[in-house]
């Protein structure tokens, strides 16, 4: 390829690195990154989450009893800043089922003592004071840079109340107290939560014709206040893999709903990602690979929804492009596997969906369930304790960010691009059907997301091993991508991190005492090495996630800066790679640290590979 390998720090380091890369019996997976002209802006809204109003915003705020007598809501010193640090790109509010109980007006007063109460459970009792109201929610979105998404109560509210909520958020506006800073408006609104399932108020779900009637009246009233808002409708297929998925099956809830809507809408709200349920009794090794294959179910469902829209909706709707918002998703094998919901395996399930959604043009957003508190689901617990899923979300927040470490992605204009790639493997996974997931005989063992940050000149690669039993060796070729911009003047310096536990299903019980295996949860520095652009090799142990960063080092000090593509190429990425500092010399402190990392890694890898 006309490239020269840059000087390795020490011959000894090179030998150790080569030894640590090899894993006997590993499958080989090849990734060839495509030319820059095939890249697209990374959809930042893929990295979303949920936060409920109850329990003071799932513990983002302190209870009035613990607020030190403050007349206004007080942010939790244990949770709030950590949650902001996760940088979710979209946050959904005020909850899932709780949306059907919620009255947004209860939290309008600044003074906590003047705020009202809303129901948090069956038959509208018990009730709890609303501390995390719309103002607090929008302030959290402002602090994180997240796009707000609000789910409207379509059962215990009126069209007028929904319209007033739009007016309060977008026309009158919310302001911080006491500084008076204007908070973000709300562009995205979801009309109801899971009306295709039994509600906590009725033994039977509402007929889809009634759901359509409610949506028609509420949507019209909201649009009359602010025509710029985007509205989403909740839909669900009647069966997944031949198993009933709504309480209306064998009737088709979605087809009846679409046939009765007289208003236009902008996106479909899906909760199809609670998978692979119901998979009761599935062995844990099979469960891991079954969960990793769940994207197939989601793809099948989205194609079904597209066809239903084309057949059943009003003409004005058929001319619109269809977008999907997966407003709730989480690993859900069955209702008896509570500790799995916050396990590292559950985090890998999230990563698998993010890797997939990032490459689909019809995805508006995806919101994992959920951010904080919330029983077994939250990434953080009520005192800020980090669950295994937290580590996966945090790494993806860095992957999605412009500079790869501290930067915050913007939901509408971003300097982070998703890079297309082709792949091949010498091994594929065979998946037996279970629960909502059908059988598959050629599931790729690696799920990957490749992005490029123009602000930091960094390629970031997520490599998720979907095999429960086999280690993998991944070969990455960047020559097509780089040569589409400049001549071959650069070598790649790769740094990578590994997230792994012996048992990916180890979770935290409700008292937050980790089982022994979960003590190893966390990122472990893996290796740092220099490689030519066509021969980057990274080992990905079984059921693990590796996050790699690729920077570029000029072969000779006088190598030119990579110039941007010609202006006549509108689809090309405006990349300008600045030459980085030379590779450290053998006697430098950086080299010493590097050698130490290699030794530590070999010892660690010997433990996990057994």
Please, could you describe this protein's structure?
It is a single chain. The two termini are 37 Å apart. The chain is built from 14 helices and 26 strands. The chain has helices spanning 11-21, 54-58, 80-85, 134-144, 159-172, 208-225, 253-260, 284-292, 295-312, 315-318, 344-357, 388-400, 479-483, 589-609, and strands at residues 27-33, 40-41, 48-50, 90-93, 117-119, 127-129, 147-152, 188-191, 230-234, 239-240, 243-244, 267-269, 273-276, 323-332, 363-368, 416-418, 421-425, 429-431, 440-443, 446-453, 458-465, 472-477, 490-499, 523-531, 536-540, 545-554. By secondary structure, the chain is of the alpha/beta class. It is 26% helix and 22% strand.
Name some characteristics of this structure.
14 helices; disordered N terminus; alpha/beta; seven-stranded antiparallel beta sheet; 610 residues; globular; eight-stranded parallel β-barrel; 26% helix
